[in-house]
Amino acid sequence: MMRPLIVPGIIAAFSVVIIYLALQLKLSPPMIVGHSMQPRSFPIFLMVINLVLVGILAWDCMRNPPKPIKLEGMTTWISISLFAAFYVLTTYADFFIAIAVVMFLLCTSWGEKRYHIAALVSVTVPLTLFLLFDEVLKIRFPRGLITNWYYG
Amino acid sequence: MLEAITAMASVIGDPYLLMLIAVTTVLGIVIGVLPGLGATTGAALLLPFTLTMSPVNAIAVLATLYVSATFAGSITAILINTPGTSAAAATTFDGFPLAQRGEAGRALGIAVVSSTIGGIFSIIVLCLAAPLLARVAYEFRPPEYFALTVFGLSMLASIGAGGAVKNLIGGIFGVWLATIGAERVTSIERFMFGNYELYEGLSFVPVMIGLFAISELLVQSKHAHRVADMVTLKAVKLPTREDYRKIWKTIARSSGIGTFIGILPAEGATVASMIGYSEARRWSKNREEFGKGSVEGIAGAEAANNAATGGAMVPTMVLGIPGSGTTAIILVGLMVHGLRPGPYLFTEQIGTVYQIFGSMLVANVIFLAMGLYAAKLFARISLVPTAILWPIVFALSVIGAYALSASLLDVWIALIFGVVGFFARRHGFSVAPIAVGLILGHMVEVNLQNSLKMFDGAWWMILTQPLALLFLILAFLGLFGSQIVKLITGGGKAAD
């Protein structure tokens, strides 16, 4: 019964939290704002409209309940988990090591059985992109194990 | 006018720019034939590579990619019944049945020629209409701009795949994202949670990469083990005289429809191709052939979807209101390169503007040649295993997100928006309204603030400005027009 209302409920809760946070914002002196809006007014205005729209969405969901959505397959969850692993590896090892490792694991978890191909792609693509951005576009990448060695 | 023609012609005299356009056309076709990638994702991934280019070259590259990827979606639509881009969905209705009958070369030939004619027609209209519209927009003041952006936001109701309410919720979420950072007048920090890297607000580029590229990666993970069957293609054939006799009216009609739909804020190539296809069917003497391999069906869809690309550039460049995800990224490209979208672009940077238009024209000619002579080769690219392709997209996304500001925060933002975008799409919300809302958010707030200052806080004075009132009425009709018609005529009749 309540299942169709989960998404509208989450959006409504988000809107209420934003209104609460907006109400905590400082007020600007009238001599600066003049006849215009306070910085908090516009986000509150947006979220009030959002709440009205969520009401319409909830009403619509009650009248025509959406089809239940199948739970994601393992590949999707593994991919999302690899994003988290990417954060950890970038923070504690190196940006490019993280990209190579995540690329390899993505390749294999998505069904690539030729591990040598997956490994080759995972090494050559980040390496090529690194050289392109560093040498041609002159962009410095964050310090890590490899970049420390490369930049000296 | 002479200045415009000279600027457009200068594209041909610039070998470096010509080379860039040729390379990007190839890249655009490759991106377009890869199912799932498409013009928007491609533009998001390509944007960081344009950072060191001159503004003209950078925008020419993005516009060329837009044009060529939109066309290329038809190659896989015809050969493997999988549209490379959503704009080519209508092409599958007749393209694939014709290919199954052993006439893949003929189907592709008709698609290429129709796309080229549609594209060139829309660029001619763009060259003529944009300066005229700019002259009108030149007179706009904050109330008119505020009302125009409200109109643009109201049109979000019809952008993308979600329903009207879901699209508007997405658009409002996008506008709210634009409020993150220090408020411009008072410098009061909003929703930064102590992170001073957000002082200037969210960067557009990582958000775009996250919403379009990374969320698509997660969507494609559901089809990780898919294998496509490809129809055999011997050679692409130019349409015969008999074909031309059958399709010329359809191409002319669809070119007009596509250009007009493209000009409407928040309407795009997908809607244009569907309407182009249905109009081709409505006016055809051989309706029974539709769905079974009609050449008019292919021409109707293809001329319209490519014509929409030129049309969509009109509101993007003249008013700063993007009509789709791809034009939203082109708009970001304009801003990143220091060009101010809007009517002033046509007075301050007229040469630049016409060079960009000229590049789009050249791109259409190049993809005609590529489509005719290299479609067979490009079609094979669509068979690249998804397990190899999407990890490459991941690498391009995270490095691209980092490149603009050399900030790891942007990489995390891209990943977060990728996951948010994925779950939004999973529940029927389109991500394009979020992107457009983010871009228009600043414009709508600043113009509302300035309007209130103009009228000493009397907001209702906005309604006394004729043009502003017109835009607001259009926005109202756009949102509630169909409900009003239903109320007047009765629900049942309207449904009929």
Task: Describe this protein's structure.
- The complex is a heterodimer of chains A (152) and B (496).
- Chain A has 152 residues and is an all-alpha fold.
- Helices cover 71% and strands 0% of the residues of chain A.
- Chain A is built from seven helices and no strands.
- In chain A, helix 4 runs antiparallel to helix 5.
- Chain B has 496 residues and is mainly alpha-helical.
- Chain B has a domain at 2-140 and 211-405.
- Helix content of chain B is 72%, strand content 1%.
- Chain B has 19 helices and two strands.
- Chain B has a two-stranded antiparallel sheet with strand order 1-2.
- In chain B, strand 1 and strand 2 form a beta hairpin.
- The longest helix of chain B has 49 residues, at 89-137.
- The radius of gyration of chain B is 22 Å and the shape is globular.
- In chain B, 63% of the residues are buried.
- Mean pLDDT of chain B is 84; it is low at 492-496.
- At the A-B interface, helix 1, helix 3, helix 4, helix 5 and helix 6 of A face helix 7, helix 15, helix 16 and helix 17 of B.
Give me the secondary-structure topology.
The complex is a heterodimer of chains A (152) and B (496).
Chain A: H1 6-23, H2 30-33, H3 41-63, H4 74-92, H5 95-109, H6 115-136, H7 145-151
Helix pairs in contact in A: 1-3, 4-5, 5-6
Chain B: H1 2-10, H2 15-33, H3 38-46, H4 55-79, H5 89-137, H6 142-154, H7 164-177, E1 181-182, E2 189-190, H8 204-220, H9 241-263, H10 269-283, H11 295-319, H12 325-336, H13 345-348, H14 350-381, H15 386-403, H16 408-426, H17 432-454, H18 466-489, H19 491-495
Antiparallel strand pairs in B: 1-2
